[in-house]
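**User:** Once you have settled down, spend some time on the protein underneath, comparing sequence with structure tokens, and judge whether sequence predicts the tokens.
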Amino acid sequence: MNITQEATPVPALPVVLTLAQRELVRFFRQRNRVIGALVQPIMFWALFSLGLRGNDLGFEFFFPGTIAMILLFTAIFATISIIEDRREGFLQSVLVAPAPRWAMVFGKIVGGAAIALLQALMFLALGCVTLGLPGSPLDIVMSVFLMAVLAIALTGLGFFLAWRMESTQGFHAIMSVFLFPMWLLSGALFPDDPESWITLISRFNPLTYGVAGLRHYLHFGDESMVNVLPSLPVCWAVSLAFATLMVVLSWRIAATRTTGDLL
């Protein structure tokens, strides 16, 4: 009698949705994490806006950069769950299940991106209430689509970096070195100046084009600050290419089977 039986393949869509839902449930059950995610960007927004008011940079200028900060930090730190899942044995269970690995990748990325986008939308609503509409209704809708693209790109980046990590401490160390420069050199804090070396370096940072795209849509009636920014088609092209590249790299690194998968 043949005792070996092939496992029945599991449809990919339920796997994607279940893993994404698990990320959301895990986030909302951690009350301290929810409070910190809401308070931190408001605190940074107020401090930078009030501290640099003397340079004619106010709440309106830092608003798109703060949204980029929310997307960056929330999306990437959501992927810490990959390391925790591996240590708790959950990831190993998913990897040996008869489900395609790309479904696991998409589930984690969709879940992390959804958390980041939800926080960014709450901050966008706060800006509309306190400062008024930052743009036309169409601009606001387009900015939400751009936020979604950035959230997917940054969660994919976090997945790619976290996959080979063995400890959350190491992940935090790498992220501290990597994330802050990425955000500082994205145009979130400094106005675009063609003669500045910071602006020159920022052109090699894909997040720069996300921040510039958000400034195009969320300008609060002051379109003078977007005149020197990359054009909207360029912002969209770079952001979409960034998101596609990060998802593909995440899928590729997760598809490579190593002995570390089951440790």
Summary: Residues 12-255 form one domain. The chain has one domain: 12-255. The first helix runs from residue 12 to 29. The chain is about 75% helix and 0% strand.
